[in-house]
């Protein structure tokens, strides 16, 4: 009796399941390009994957995308794309491009079907300013002379000083560096040199130069030592600077911009003529954005050979109250991991950001909720390096790695952005490095 009753229940369950899947209730539709896939590409991919941008192929149209469907599926499942390296353990960031699980499932399912769907289902295309990821700049400043880059060998840091020709003070809401030849640019730093600054006075204007080309030893030293404020930092994969309403960078009237360019060779000679685009704030802001840095230049580098987890750290304190906005860690080929911490009076640490570092995708990390820091707050930056054969990018695991400018050398710089009252001068806001 029990067996017959159980069998009857099983038959009823199967019948119910079949009824639920009857032809009168169609199965869920497969994802299509225009309705389901294109919105994901627009939101997460097309900033890089469109004509003229850094990615190797555009993903704007159905014809461009369909042949890459399986690769898209594989890289989103493995979370290699979109690139994002912040450990989810610590912090939330407004510029996190990571896909939700449902978006990954949609792209994966479409890779098998590759259905175009109805073009009338397509969302309106996003508005991209030609050549820029910011709105069309109010002012574009370009290095007056291009820099010749050899096919092989090292290229010393190259500088070019350009007048802004601003007759009045300017507040910069957005800015973006645009190399003319991205394949040669390892990174670029654009400094603001106010008219009263003595930094690199006597160096040539409007023409490329290197530290070694300067005859004055004091000028050669100054090329690597500056107290000038940073306008912005560029590296492959980094995003433009876009500050919230009420915050902006400050360029005093009659200032110069100093382009510091780090070029690398790739076997083919070329040239570069980098530009920076500026979008002005519509009204004077209440807060000024400053870029500070925690850097350990020499005292814990060189890195020993065949070492896979070498640790370097630096501490510093803020002299005044400030609002912490974002981070930009920078290392070279042996870089493995980077961490920013707050250190409390009891020496307990709070990790604000932990990055599994990728030399080829140097990203900014913008806090979803900016953090107010009181004067005297101690910050700590820690970097780990892999100088072993486990590191596929390591040019020579059997040699110690010294500090230096070239990619086979190493650096440890933890840039970070803060907001302070608009009348605060950068010259009075150096982070004090702890002994």
Structural description of this entry:
The chain has three domains: 28-121, no CATH class; 137-285, Sandwich (Jelly Rolls); 286-435, Jelly Rolls (Sandwich). Strand 15 and strand 16 (349-356) form a beta hairpin. Strands 1, 4, 7, 8, 11, 12, 14, 17 and 19 form a nine-stranded mixed beta sheet that branches. The protein has a five-stranded antiparallel beta sheet with strand order 16-15-18-13-20, with no helix packed on it. Strands 3-9-5-6 form a four-stranded antiparallel beta sheet, with no helix packed on it. Helices cover 15% and strands 31% of the residues. The longest helix has 19 residues, at 2-20. The relative contact order is 0.14. Helix 2 packs across helix 5 (101-113) and helix 4 packs antiparallel against helix 5 (101-113). The chain contains six helices and 20 strands. It has helices spanning 2-20, 33-44, 62-66, 69-77, 101-113, 217-222; strands spanning 139-142, 147-149, 158-163, 170-178, 185-193, 229-234, 241-242, 247-251, 256-263, 270-272, 275-280, 287-295, 307-317, 322-330, 335-343, 349-356, 365-373, 378-387, 413-421, 432-433. The protein has 435 residues and is an alpha+beta fold.
